[in-house]
Specification:
By secondary structure, this protein is mainly alpha-helical. It has 5 helices and 3 strands. It has a 3-stranded antiparallel sheet with strand order 1-3-2. A hairpin with a 2-residue loop joins β2 and β3. The protein is globular, with a radius of gyration of 18 Å. The N and C termini lie far apart (about 55 Å).
Amino acid sequence: MSDASIPTSPGLPNRKRSSRARAGVRARERRLQDERREALKDPDRADLPPAAVSIRDFRIMTGLSAATIFRLLLKGKLKSTKLGGRRLIAFSEVERLLRGE
């Protein structure tokens, strides 16, 4: 199969990206992750925990991998809800899991 037959439309998941484009995506991801970490450390928000957190924020807070989080969800040890297209985990679930219950 030649490279000419591989679809390169922006909407297709198998689209080839240059190393520069991949580096830009990784840099944006790191920047977003850093912003989320800082937001979670913000002293003004420390007294008011969020009602729910995204999978990504849950990963940052707990240090668990996405695979481990989804495994916990599948086993029923962690509960989540889907709101629109986002999967959210109630903050009480975060606290419960961290307490080891």
